[in-house]
């Protein structure tokens, strides 16, 4: 049995990974939180070396999956010092402390390491982040490659799914359209929407097979954000007329976005039995969960 530690298990992807590994008796699964307290998880602050040491000494991990990061792109642009402490120095701290344990490290990265001029991108295309979030995640990748011998870097993007505590794109869309709010959606941000449970399953199988190196793990489709929103509204029976297509330059966002992005999945597709799903199939699963939620809250069918 291997001891696996999911750093950031209280987050959206981390929670999904925690659940899927818990089901496999060949792993002893542990997870951590830093702000969202959870009695099933261990406290770990990536900026506090003693906090990391305490967890490592307790569980002696064989495998670490690092999902913890500051991912709000706008916040990252405005709070660079704090973001660097978590997204870069935090990764160094974990990497240093993991050395005596000879751990395998799986690091969750992003398509934002690319500039979005010539996507979709393969794993060997030249990186060139254009916002601070992307720069810190690329620095995190380099830390892992420098400090860790047995590593896997997972580049993903636009991770969506049903989770009432998450602010992922789908949950924002459901909330806004249920409240009859107009939602401006960029028509020129092209990416690879990734269904969270599918992503977690692919990472799990990658771990089972001890895959090493850099891998794009995203959904099967490449589409712009407005296209994704319209398809989502159609499948979920929401009013797509509330969706307004706009160009990114008119959204007033602080951080630059890679526009013509998305990730190629040829490499991971050949390695796994669990394949990337398309947007439609991911949305169908969300619809089932959303319909069940509505039926259980029939007095007030609005999403809160």
TrEMBL record:
Pathway: Carbohydrate biosynthesis; dTDP-L-rhamnose biosynthesis. Residues 3-283 form the RmlD-like substrate binding domain. Keywords: NADP, Oxidoreductase. GO terms for biological process: dTDP-rhamnose biosynthetic process. SUPFAM superfamilies: NAD(P)-binding Rossmann-fold domains (SSF51735). It comes from the Bacteria. One of its GO terms (cellular component) is cytosol. It is an enzyme of class 1 (oxidoreductase). GO terms for molecular function: dTDP-4-dehydrorhamnose reductase activity. Its EC number is 1.1.1.133. PANTHER family: DTDP-4-DEHYDRORHAMNOSE REDUCTASE, METHIONINE ADENOSYLTRANSFERASE 2 SUBUNIT BETA. Catalyzes the reduction of dTDP-6-deoxy-L-lyxo-4-hexulose to yield dTDP-L-rhamnose. Belongs to the dTDP-4-dehydrorhamnose reductase family. This is dTDP-4-dehydrorhamnose reductase. It comes from Clostridium tyrobutyricum DIVETGP. The lineage of its organism: Bacteria, Bacillati, Bacillota, Clostridia, Eubacteriales.
């Amino acid at each position: 049995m291997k001891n696996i530690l999911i750093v950031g298990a209280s987050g959206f992807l981390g929670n999904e990974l925690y659940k899927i590994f818990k089901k496999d008796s060949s792993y002893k699964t542990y997870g951590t939180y830093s702000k969202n307290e959870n009695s099933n998880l261990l406290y770990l602050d990536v900026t506090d070396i003693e906090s990391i040491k305490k967890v490592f000494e307790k569980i002696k991990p064989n495998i670490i999956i690092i999902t913890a990061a500051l991912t709000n792109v706008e916040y990252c642009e405005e709070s660079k010092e704090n973001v660097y402490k978590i997204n870069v120095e935090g990764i160094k701290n974990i990497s240093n402390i993991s050395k005596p344990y000879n751990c395998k490290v799986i690091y969750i990265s992003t398509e934002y390491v690319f500039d979005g001029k010539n996507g979709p991108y393969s794993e060997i295309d030249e990186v060139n982040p254009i916002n601070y979030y992307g720069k810190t995640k690329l620095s995190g990748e380099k830390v892992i490659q420098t400090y860790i011998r047995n590593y896997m870097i997972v580049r993903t993007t636009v991770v969506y799914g049903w989770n009432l505590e998450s602010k992922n794109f789908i949950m924002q869309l459901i909330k806004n359209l249920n409240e009859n709010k107009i939602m401006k959606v960029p028509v020129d941000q092209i990416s690879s929407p990734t269904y969270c449970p599918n992503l977690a399953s692919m990472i799990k199988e990658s771990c089972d097979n001890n895959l090493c190196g850099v891998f794009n793990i995203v959904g099967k489709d490449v589409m712009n954000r407005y296209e994704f929103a319209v398809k989502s509204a159609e499948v979920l029976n929401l009013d797509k007329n509330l969706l307004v297509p706009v160009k990114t330059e008119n959204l007033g966002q602080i951080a630059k976005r890679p526009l013509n992005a998305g990730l190629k999945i040829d490499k991971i597709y050949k390695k796994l039995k669990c394949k990337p799903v398309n947007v439609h199939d991911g949305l169908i699963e969300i619809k089932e969960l959303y319909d069940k939620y509505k039926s259980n809250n029939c007095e007030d069918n609005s999403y809160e």
